[in-house]
Amino acid sequence: MDVISTADVSAGERMAYWREMSSKLCAPYELRCERELESEFRAQAGISDFGPVQAALMTSARHTVHRTPKLIRQSDPEVFKLACVERGGGGMTQDGRYTEFGVGDLILFDTSRPYEAEFQRDVPVSRLLLLRFPRSLLPLPTRDLRSLSGVRIPGAGGIGGLSAQFMLQLARHMDELSPSDAARLSTLTLDVLTMALATALDAERTVPPHTRRRALMARIHAFIRDNLGDTRLTPDAIAAAHHISLRYLHKLFQEEGHTVAAWVRERRLEQCRRDLADPRLAARPINAIAARWGFANAAHFSQAFRSAHGLSPRQFRERCATAAPGATVRAD
């Protein structure tokens, strides 16, 4: 992941620097900040490419952006941007439509037409994931998609909410992704985007079945990862959250060579292993780590961990503590 930041830029040049960097990342636009806040302006973006999709995790002080007709005539990359808010919020106007957006909401921007956007005034720092992609990549009519620009896709529930979970998981782990991870996530990201927008257009049936299935599995995986600490995370609960039958849920996982319960258990064990290896958590009781990730029974956790890694949780933690700094501990 590449990072651009105003951290090393003098206060008087930060706005100009961020305007230039933002224009290179997406498309030229006017950037403004209230005069009294200019000296305190800060912004940073971590950027990763997922095939044709560019993801930018941006943290920024309050400002406004304006994509003007003049700037569009100068440069039109013919791309959409989709924002998913992780912290803060704001408002946007495009095609005469104004909408406010908050945490978890999805907002579509068409860079080929003028728009204005601003961050929430009472939140000093906002954070959002911006996905940039060519319009031609979505198997949906451009005319229909344009009807969604400046429209909030709520992140509080439904397909929009489940899609936002996937997007926010992507944002939180961008700096951990290998090139092979990024290549795999390219297709999944487009699938999830397509389904979120198709659902907002009430056009799910126009999306190819394989795209619908991949998007559904991506949302299910993100939902599970977001809820690993909940002991009520059962196959029934997962199926209900995604409005599918329990039988169909089991079928989806069987096609991938897993059972639902085994996949959940493996993700929980991964998180426990990570925490047990973390020296910052050395004083935290093993039972507390297990409970944090959904293991309500300490004996069951110990048995599952030993079965997966060949060591008890305590033995694994001790081996990590005595390993040389930077060494990787093998527990299997």
Short description:
The protein has 332 residues and is of the alpha+beta class.
Task: Describe it.
There is one protein chain. This protein has 332 residues and is α+β, with helices and mostly antiparallel strands. It has a domain at 2-159: Jelly Rolls (Sandwich). Helices cover 43% and strands 21% of the residues. The chain contains twelve helices and twelve strands. It has helices at 14-25, 69-74, 142-146, 158-173, 179-200, 209-226, 235-241, 246-255, 260-277, 286-292, 298-309, 313-322; strands at residues 2-5, 30-32, 43-50, 53-61, 64-67, 79-87, 90-94, 97-101, 106-110, 115-119, 125-134, 152-153. The chain has a seven-stranded antiparallel β-sheet, with helices on one face. Helix 9 packs across helix 10 (286-292) and helix 9 (260-277) packs across helix 11 (298-309). It starts with a strand and ends in a 10-residue tail after the last helix. The model has no long low-confidence stretch (mean pLDDT 87).
Distance between the termini: 30 Å
Number of strands: 12
Helix content: 40-55%
Q: How would a textbook summarize the main sheet? A: 7 strands, antiparallel
Write the CATH homologous superfamily of the domain at 2-159.
Jelly Rolls
Question: What class would the helix/strand composition place it in?
Answer: alpha+beta
Query: Hey, roughly how much beta strand do the residues contain?
Result: 15-25%
CATH C-level class of the domain at 2-159 is Mainly Beta
- Separate helix tally: 12
Q: If you average the pLDDT, what whole number results? A: 87
| Element order: H for helix, E for strand | EHEEEEHEEEEEEHEHHHHHHHHH
Main sheet: which strands, in order across? 1-3-4-11-6-9-12
Look up the CATH topology of the domain at 2-159: Jelly Rolls
